[in-house]
Amino acid sequence: MPAQSQLASESLDALVRILDDVRLRGARSRSELVALSGLGRNVVSERVAQLLERGLLAEGAFRPSTGGRPPRGLAFNEDAGHVLVADLGATSIDVAATSLSGRLIRHRAERAQIDAGPDRVLAQVDALFDDLLRTGADLPGRLWGIGIGVPGPVEFRTGRPVSPPIMPGWDGYPVREHFAARHDVPVWVDNDVNVMALGEARAGVAAGHANVVVIKIGTGIGAGIISDGRLHRGAQGSAGDVGHIQVSDDPAVVCRCGNRGCLEALAGGAAIARAGEAAATDGTSVRLAALRATGRAISAEDVAREAAHGDPVAVDILQSAGHHVGAMLASIVNFFNPSLIVIGGGVSGSGDLLLAAIRQTVYGRSLPLATRDLVIQRSSLADRAGVIGASAMVVDQLFSREVLARWFDRGTPAGLREAVEPAA
Amino acid sequence: MPAQSQLASESLDALVRILDDVRLRGARSRSELVALSGLGRNVVSERVAQLLERGLLAEGAFRPSTGGRPPRGLAFNEDAGHVLVADLGATSIDVAATSLSGRLIRHRAERAQIDAGPDRVLAQVDALFDDLLRTGADLPGRLWGIGIGVPGPVEFRTGRPVSPPIMPGWDGYPVREHFAARHDVPVWVDNDVNVMALGEARAGVAAGHANVVVIKIGTGIGAGIISDGRLHRGAQGSAGDVGHIQVSDDPAVVCRCGNRGCLEALAGGAAIARAGEAAATDGTSVRLAALRATGRAISAEDVAREAAHGDPVAVDILQSAGHHVGAMLASIVNFFNPSLIVIGGGVSGSGDLLLAAIRQTVYGRSLPLATRDLVIQRSSLADRAGVIGASAMVVDQLFSREVLARWFDRGTPAGLREAVEPAA
Lengths: 424, 424
What we know:
Distance between the termini of chain A: 15 Å
Strand content of chain A: 15-25%
Oligomer: homodimer
CATH superfamily of the largest domain in chain A: ATPase, nucleotide binding domain
Helix content of chain A: 40-55%
CATH architecture of the largest domain in chain A: 2-Layer Sandwich
C-alpha cells in the first residue's frame, strides 16, 4: 500500500535509517552517519535537517574534531514525547512512564491477580497510569504511545491474547482498543517474555547479541527469542512457549495443561513451591518446616532463600529444577545456536544454585560447536526488563517505516490510534 | 562502510526493492510496483529504466488493461546470466546450471564420498562443473556466481566448514576460494539443509510460509530454519543441528558424537539400517533376511521399502524412528511456532509410514495453539531442493544492497570475487 505521507518513500527509508543510526547505533555527527548508513553526504544533510526541524534530533555540544571547523554533535531527542508501559505478571503489575529512549521517569509496582480477568486488572492499570500522568508535570512532551506486556500468547497484529492458559477471561480481549480509546495514542501489546527479551536486548546483558534466548522462570516458564537481531514471534505468536516441552517420561508428573512430564510441572515456580511445601510438611527440611510452622504456605522464593542458606533439601529442589531447565535448553541450543541465554524471572533472582545447575546441564549436553562461545547469565535488569522492553517495542514501532509515514508530517503520533494496524 | 558505487544509496534501496518485487513477488507493471513498494511513480520509472538499460528487467508482451493505453509487461530477465551450484551429500553430489530464477538448465548427480576429503571431492565437483560448462553452449549470459551446499556446519561469512562431524579433512577448508580462483565469480557456501530450506521456500511447499522448519532425514538428521522469511543460521552457523538433541534416557543408545540418547542414533538413516540389519540377521524379519541372504548389507531404503510392502518388523523400525523425530519436533514446535514442517531427505522418500508417525507424535505432544494451523508434509522438490536453494542463495546475495552496489555500474558480477565478503 502507498504510504499516507507527503514524503517520497525513498526519503522515508533514509529518515528511518538515520534515526535508527542515531538512537540505536550511536552515530553522533553527519560524518558518522555517512559512514554508518552508506547514504550520500547530501542525503544525510537533508534528512538530518528535517529531523532537527521536527524535533526528533537535537544539535548538542561541540565535539572534538581532527581539524577545521568543529562539527556539532547530533543526539536523539528522547524527550520529544513520552511513553506509558505496563508489564502484567501472574501476580504483579509494573507500570512506568519512560522517555523515547526507554529511560524510566516514573516506575510503580503493585500486587495484582491476572486471573481476576480483564475488567478488574485493566481498571487497576488505568488507575496506575492516571496516577503516573497526574503526578507527571515533568513528563517530557506529549504522550506518544502505550506498550503492554501480558503473561500469555498474543496475536501481535491485533494486540489480543490468544488462549492464554493462566489468564481466564482474556482470550481475544481487545487490550489495544481499551487503552487507545482512553488515551488516543497508538498501542502495542505483546507477551511478557517477548517484551522482557526486547528490554535485555536494548538495555541489558543481551545488547550487541544477535541471537538470544531469554528464559523467564516465574510461576510458569516462558522464553523470548531474538533471531538475527529481531524478535521471533512465530506463526501464531506462541513462539517461546517452552514451559510445556516434555522433559520427563515419569507418568506421575502431570501438568495443569493436561499433558505429562512438562518442564513447568517440574521446574516452574509453582512446582518448586509444591516441592518445598512437601519438604516442610514431612519434615525432611527443618528450615522449611520451621517456616511452615508460622502458618503460611511455602513459596518458590522461600525455597531459593533457604537453599542459599545451605538447607540441603532446598538445594536439591533447586538443582533438580535447574537440571530440567538445562535439559530443555540443551535441545534449544542445538536447534537455535544462540550466543547468549539470559535467565530471568522471580525464581531466578535469588542465589546462583539454579544458574549453576542450568549451566552444568547445557554445557554437558549440547554440541561443542554450539556452546563454544555460548554465554549463560542472569538478567541484569531484573524487574525492569519488562517495562524497558515494552517502551522499546512502542518506540521501534513508532519509528518503523509504515508507522512513521503516517505521522511524520504532523510531528506527533498522538491521535493516530485508528491508523495503526501494523503488519504481523 | 560507504557503498563502492556511483549510485546514490537512496537509489540503491529502491533498485533492490524493485528487483525483489519483480523477481520474488510477481510485480508485472510499473503500477503494480508503485502499489507493492510504496515508492513514488517517478522513482519507480527512473529505477525501472536503469534496470531495463542494464538488462536485469525486460519489457514483454502487452497485458490486458482496464482502459486507455495498455501498460507493457515487465519481467525479470532470468537469462541475464547463469549460476553453477553443487549440493554435496554424505554419499552423493548433485550439480546444476540454473538461470537467475533457479530454473534448472542442466542437472547431474553422481555418487561420491564426502569423507574422502576436500581434494578428491572438489576435484569431482570441478569435473562436473567443467562438463556442465563444456556442453553448455546454450547457457544464458555469463557465469554470475557459484553456490555450494555441504553436509555440515559452515561459517557463512567466510564459506568455510566448521568442525563438520562427517567431513574429515574439511574443517576450515577454503571452499569459497577454491571455486572463486577457478571461475573468477563470487561464491557462497552453506549447510546442505539450509540450502534445501531455501529451495523449499522459493520453489517448493514452503513458498508463502514465513516460519518454517525443514528436516532432512538422511544418513544423519539436520534442520533448516526460516524465521520471519529469512534463513536463521545462528551464532556460529550451527543452528538446526537437531540430530544430537537427546530424546532417550536409554544408556544403551550411544551416538557417534560420544553422547547418549541422540535423535540421530535412534532415527537417522544409519540407525534404521542397523536395526534392519539386526532384524535380517536374527531372522525376525523374513523379508529383510531374504534380502540379506543375497549377500549385501541392509540399507535404510531397504527397510522403508519392505515396510511399505507390509513387513511388520520394518514397519516397527520406521514407526519408532518417526516417533523419535516427532518427539524432538514437538519441543521445537512449542519453542519456535512454525506454520510448516517439511520432511525431506533420503529416508523420508519412500512411503507414508514415517510421516504418519511423525505427525501423530507432534500433534499429540505440542500445545494446541502452536499446532492449530501447523502443516507437516513431505518435500515436494525431493533431490532438487538443494540445487534450487543453492541457486537462490547466490542470486539473493548478488541482488543484496551490499553486493549489488559493487557491480551494478559494471553490469556483471563476473570478476568480483575479491570484493565479496558479505556480512554474516
